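Limitations
The structure tokens in this dataset are predictions for the assembled complex, not deposited experimental models. Users should treat interface geometry with appropriate caution, especially where small molecules or nucleic acid strands are included. An illustrative entry is reproduced here so readers can see what is and is not provided.
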Amino acid sequence: MTSLVIGLGVLLVLVILYMIFRIGNLVNVMSGPEKPGGTANKANATLLLLFMAGSLAAFFWYSFKHMDSFTLPVASEHGKVTDQLFWITMVIVVAAFSVIFAVMFWFTYKYQYKEGRKAVFLTDNHMLELTWTGIPAIVMAILIFKGLNSWTEITGPATKDAEVIELMGQQFFWTARYPGKDNELGKYDFRLIDASNEFGMNLQDDPNTYDDFKSATLVLPKGKEVLLKIRARDVLHSVFLPHFRVKMDAVPGMPTQFKFVPTKSTEDMRTETGNPNFNYEMACTEVCGKGHFSMKFPVLVLEQDAYDKWKAEQETWLKQNPDYRKFVPEKYRELADIKSGIIAAVTTSNQ
Amino acid sequence: MATTTIQPQTTVHHDDGHEHEHHEGNFWTTYVFSQDHKTIAKQFLITGMAWALIGGLFSVIFRLQLGFPEATLEWLRPVLGGWITPEGKLDPEFYLSLVTMHGTIMVFFVLTAGLSGTFSNFLIPLQVGARDMASGFMNMLSYWFFFLSSAVMFVSLFLSTGPASGGWTVYPPLSALPQAIQGSGLGMTLWLVSMALFIVSTLLGGINYITTVINMRTNGMSFTKMPLTIWAFFFTAIIGLLSFPVLFSAALLLIFDRSFGTSFFLSDIYIAGEALSNVGGSPILFQHLFWFLGHPEVYIVLLPALGITSEIIATNSRKPIFGYKAMVGSMMFIAILSFIVWAHHMFVTGMNPFLGSIFTILTLIIAVPSAVKIFNYVTTLWGGNIRFTPAMLFSLGLVSFFLTGGITGLFLGNSAVDIQLHDTYFVVAHFHLVMGSASFFGMIAGVYHWFPKMFGRMMDDRLGYIHFWMTFVGVYLVFFPMHYIGIAGFPRRYYSWTNFETFSGWTDLNMLVSIAAILTLSAQFIFMFNFIYSIFRGKLAPANPWNSTTLEWTTPRFPQHGNWPGEIPTVYRWPYDYSKPGAKEDFIPQTVPYSETPESNLKHENDLIKLEMGSGSGVVTGNGH
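Predicted assembly:
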């Protein structure tokens, strides 16, 4: 019933609009054809000018008023560099945009049709054209130079003592694997993946796997270089750490990586933002299916000593999954027991 | 040059079933399987408009979800059925289908087929002075392949597993594995079939456009006398011809991966509880192949719009386009560069960072010719005598969007800055303005401008103004706020952001965007009404309503098959003699020889008069009427 009423209402409005249009048409026919410089032309020229002024004003007002809410605080070393480049580009872009935008709509207003005036017959002007080819080219060159410098640095090789952490994306969550005390991530093979061995760790061949541990939070040390080794096991995903200005796709079959230095612990950030509940987050930015929007991974940045302490407390994956001890070949069995902490007492007494 | 003799409608003689119909084509050959470029153009236009409506409606549905995440969409159940969850929400997987289909439809069916298909077909023969396309039959096939492709895509919308849903870029493995998402089942198969047909259509059209421009120009129509529209269509067709086959190969390899167990793009995958046997493939390879088309595609949709705009702005400013040679040069430069910038879509895909550096350089170089185009448009306006027809307003809108959206490319093209912005709403804002809205405005401007030649009647101006203002302001309100949302890091293709604290704000802006999207879409119904009403009831158009110089306006009000009733006119001058000092009127058509305008000739033009004497007679034979 209500939809019928709504339908009738809409129909009525449409009929009325049509009537107005018809009447307008008739009036138009009676008053004769409008000349090119008529009221409509003036109105449009004025509206374009007002639109220009209004939208520029709104743009500047909104941008300055809400600057804090659309700029994310930065918490990595390279992030400061790319942010600076972002803002340099912003100044150039906004200046160029405002000038061209204003000039264009000033011209449309100033040179609106006037009876009897003749337009200027101007076909080209080489000086002018060379200038506005040259200036953008120079500005571009500067931006490229600055950009490539930081790009090369960001994507360059990580230092030897960087903290290596593996991130794996799958539909629809992330997991992290830490290399344990030996600081070497064990090898993996996707064919070995099963419900428990979600990383497909190769216990058979690589002793480095024995002390690896899994974490449901990405815990990072403050002030130390972190090298993320990124992989995906089903479809494409993408690691996005907005506060650290980190983004890198996770590709099945092709491990990727990203190195960076976190500069602010979660606590620092809570103080800085004045939000006691602040938490870093990691998101997925490559469409990966139904749950793409829910692939949140909590991130915690700790001071170095707290980080070391946390790391030491973690139970190895093998210890959590003792069933998998059977995959460890005989020759490595003891090593595995020690490295994984299954016989923790022995290791401590040995030290 | 053009000595083609066309025998209109005589093809029916060869058609066994229709021998009783002699010179008049019947309904089928005139309106359906027509080989006349003007009819084919209208077929492309109307199909494109239908798709634009569907694509636009899809965007409004997903904008409802994004702008009003709390609202119930129960009222859409009669249309969407099971895609509305029992809680009255949009199904997250269907959300992705909508996003995917919106992109596919808009990029390929509306802005490629609808724009190039319409205006290349309509304007190339009319503006270069040809009776029809080089091959009317191939031209007809081009439309019907497009129709077939449309039909397949349309059918895929109604599958129980939904249409393709891996994004319009259909990156594997998501698009290759039905286990990963429902839409990668039959929906994706139909998507690939549809795209294969679409590519065939584009190639058939493109070959025709290129051939016609090269071979069928009328007497005197040298390349340097061609209107910028023709230059734009010409470059567009060349880009399409070189890049679409690469998409075809990508699609073909994806079909192999999906159906025949190959591993071009798949490797090391464990999904739905099993490890797949594929090894050695690379998802990155697909991205390279896709973007090798995908980036030129941006210019395939943009260049025709820029060409159309150049023409309209010159005509309505009553001024020659500023820097004709620079305009052609920058289009050529853009066309070439468009092939070597594709990997700027892939800075953070794990591609070798060195490649990233190379593509940053090449990408920022392409900004130079783009900037030149904007400066030339603005200078064309300077000192003009501007008439704000709806076509002119939409052209100005295009320049405005091209500027607003293009300039943010400086952020995204710079790999170091792109790290943060990649796949956020900043990108969505950028390409929707510079490619989507700008091209769309070019298309609409073209419709308003050439409607009198297409249908012999005028569209209503006042409705055109309302349409323009609602759409112009609407588009800015939809896409400008997305820059802020993007800088704040909001990822695209998200069904909802509430899972994240970082992305918890901006509900107000998202709501504004959604409301603006609804208003913008509703304004298009005004246009639809104006369009359909004017076809039947619009004021009869004069032969040259805009006092324009180009050849199409020398045809009669309703140009018949073959375009000109008598000889094809000869061209003597470039297409931009507007407001020439000394001339009686503020425009001199291309068909007026310099010998008739001694009062306005420039020095070097007087020298050309001698050359005119030799040409213009006897070369162009009459048509078959």
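Some entries come with short summary sentences. For this one: The domain at 163-350 of chain A is CATH 2.60.40.420 (Immunoglobulin-like).
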